[in-house]
Specification:
mainly alpha, elongated, 98 residues, binds flavin-adenine dinucleotide
């Protein structure tokens, strides 16, 4: 269906293409090239020692945060928060293996 609408402003929200080509064969990527983490990475989990931590990719000890992460909110505050979370999760990952 086509319609002509009078507007004063127009916001174009067309999505984004992640710069993850270099990760092909290194980390599991979803069909759009974003990095699955946590439960989303479980299928490709290469550890075999229980489920991945939140933000953990399919490679044990490698975490992803922000826009590059599959299913992330794509907002500044979320990216910053996930970055802070990732630091704590790395500590937890190391503590679990100490
Ligand atoms: C036009 C536009 C408007 C937006 N407006 C808003 C808004 O109003 N409010 C809001 O909350 N969010 C907004 N966003 C979203 C917000 O910008 C992102 O959610 C946020 O920047 C994500 O942060 P990030 O650190 O995950 O990724 P990014 O900010 O994209 O940072 C990733 C960095 O990694 C670098 N990089 C990429 N590949 C490599 C590589 N191979 N090696 C080294 N460095 C690399 C990139 O150059 C970049 O500097 C907007 C985004 C766009 C595009």
């Amino acid at each position: 269906m086509r319609a002509t609408i009078e507007v004063a402003l127009l916001f174009v929200f067309i999505g984004a293409v992640p710069c993850t080509a270099w990760l092909t064969g290194v980390l599991a990527l979803d069909r759009d090239g974003f990095v699955p983490t946590g439960r989303g990475a479980e299928q490709a989990w290469s550890n075999g020692q229980g489920p991945p931590l939140p933000l953990e990719t399919n490679r044990p000890g490698i975490f992803a945060a922000g826009d590059v992460r599959s299913g992330s909110v794509k907002r500044v505050a979320s990216a910053v928060g996930e970055g802070a979370m990732a630091v704590q999760l790395v500590h937890r990952y190391l503590a679990l293996r100490a």
